[in-house]
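Need tokens for this chain, all 98 residues.
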Amino acid sequence: MHVAFVTPEFLKDGGLYPGGFATYIHSACKGLMKKGVKVTVFHPSDRDARFEFEGIPVVGVPCRLPLIMRPAARLLALFAPAATIRLVPLASPRPSDG
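Here are the structure tokens for all 98 residues:
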């Protein structure tokens, strides 16, 4: 059996923190792996990325905000930069956007 987790966040080099959705997914993956189940974690990223975190395959999937939402994300970045650190790279235009 192969289980895929699609999650808005996952742990990286920073290690484990008590609580939180990312820690829950990590614990579920480790538990399933102990039972012989193959797992893969997919999470949004600003670029295509594949890596392993403590033996768990992690795939960063590039995703973009819809074109109509990008101006709002840029305004939000001006007034609440700490809350939009992850949105701004997703809001930058692609060459194909025109």
